[in-house]
Design a protein that fits this description.
This protein is an alpha/beta fold. Helices cover about 50% and strands about 10% of the residues. The strands form two sheets. An eight-stranded parallel barrel has the order 3-4-5-6-7-8-9-10, surrounded by six helices.
């Protein structure tokens, strides 16, 4: 039984109870939202993890991607990056390796992670075909489905499945044209296969078979956004909208089969188009949770794209996005380092937190506590309330003040200390007599 099937029968699972407790909402709210497909809980039946809910009415979740490349294959470093992401507050991981023994690295991450772990099965199917036959265009249909099944059995909790790259969406992309073309790696593998073989995408054609696998293991289908824009100039174009129409139809089929689904979204997109994209996704895809990749809101900041994405995350969370994939400072430049992973997770968490405040998921309770701690010059409380306490402490300790109550920004002329000593102690009658 999947979480969706249980919810429809009125069964409150242990995972639903855990999510309700974490989110400080009622179990009935979680039950109803899971039954309606508005919330998903990635929790493969083959793993025992800390359950996390993704969807409307919940805190916006943050995903961190890790994985080898063909140039850098270091499993220990990828495991370290996964642990750094966990330690710094990521809600989910995605294992996206394309170099080395792909089964080994995935299973290592699944074993060590207490969080839900996602994957992109077409990567492994394509990479192993390239190693054997020289090109992804020679993929047998069977290897696509066998890879999905193998990863589901391993315990992968959610999978990005490129079902919506079909002849129709590719034709629309080709007719319209783009400045940056198609930048999805999975979309590139599938589109090259379609063009070379002159056949429909097997993942689209045999979608019902994928649903059977997903249902057996309760894998959440993260329906991939292969037509996402890779440049601001290409945002919200006909190919992307065409794919969204297909995705909506695939959501309906998945729900009929009892399979949980969420939708992946752009991509590179100007900040003013974010609310429109979220509204379109929610309308066309029957309010399925929306998983936004970044988003990147301008193209000119290589080396600082984690900041660009934090802005996009805040705008997206405010407008109703449910899940944000982090972006690191290495985006568009290199395989992320451990420090890049940390910076990416924290930047995206800040953006998601700001967006959640704007849409009322929380009311700034921690911000009020921080204001009180700053007013009291309580540095220990300020560190404790920080999104990264160790970094906050280290920053102040690096330039220690002469006055232990202040910091070296203002030193002896700390405005808060002056106000605490004079204004706060003044009798209100003083102002009546002035």
């Amino acid at each position: 039984m999947t979480q969706l099937q249980d919810a429809r029968k009125g069964i409150i699972t242990e995972e639903m109870k855990e999510v309700a407790k974490k989110e400080n909402v009622s179990e009935d709210f979680i039950l109803k939202s899971v039954a309606e497909g508005k919330i998903v809980i990635p929790a493969n039946v083959n793993r025992n993890i800390s359950a996390s809910g993704i969807g409307a009415g919940l805190r916006t979740k943050v995903n961190a991607t890790i994985g080898t490349s063909t140039d850098i294959i270091d499993f220990d470093e990828e495991e370290l990056k996964a642990q750094i992401a966990i330690d710094n507050g990521a809600d989910c991981l995605m294992e996206l390796s394309i170099g080395g023994d792909l089964d080994e690295i995935r299973r290592r991450i699944l074993k060590m992670s207490p969080l839900p772990v996602g994957s992109v099965p077409i990567y492994q199917a394509a990479i192993e075909t390239i190693r054997e036959k020289g090109s992804a265009i020679y993929m047998d249909e069977d290897i696509m489905f066998k890879t999905i099944e193998k990863q589901a059995k391993d315990g992968v909790d959610f999978m990005a499945i490129h079902c919506s790259v079909n002849i129709e969406t590719l034709g629309r992309l080709k007719r319209q044209g783009r400045k940056a073309g198609l930048v999805s790696r999975g979309g590139a593998f599938i589109s090259s296969w379609i063009v070379e073989n002159q056949l429909e995408n097997p993942l689209y054609k045999n979608y019902e078979y994928i649903l059977e696998i997903a249902k057996e293991h309760d894998v959440v289908m993260s329906l991939a956004n292969a037509m996402r824009a890779g440049a601001i100039a290409d945002s919200t174009d006909r190919a992307q909208v065409q794919e969204l129409i297909v995705l909506g139809e695939l959501v309906d089929k998945a729900r009929e089969a009892g399979v949980q689904t969420m939708i992946e979204g752009p991509g590179h997109i100007p900040i003013n188009e974010i609310p429109t994209n979220i509204m379109l996704e929610k309308k066309m895809c029957s309010n399925a949770p929306f998983y936004m990749l970044g988003p990147i809101v301008c193209d000119i900041a290589p080396g600082y794209d984690h900041i660009v994405s934090s802005i996009g995350a805040a705008a997206s969370a405010k407008a109703g996005a449910d899940f944000i994939c982090y972006v690191t400072p290495a985006e568009h430049l290199a395989l992320p380092s451990p420090q890049d992973v940390k910076d990416g997770v924290i930047a995206t968490r800040i953006g998601a937190y700001a967006g959640d405040m704007a849409k009322g998921v929380h009311n700034g309770e921690k911000d009020l506590a921080m204001a009180n701690a700053r007013k009291a010059l309580d540095w220990e409380a300020q560190y404790e309330l920080s999104i990264c306490p160790a970094d906050a402490r280290a920053k102040r300790d690096a330039r220690p003040p002469e006055d232990s109550d202040a910091c070296t920004m203002c030193g002896n002329f700390c405005a808060v200390k002056i106000v605490n000593e004079w204004l706060d102690e003044a009798d209100t009658d003083v102002f009546d007599n002035i």
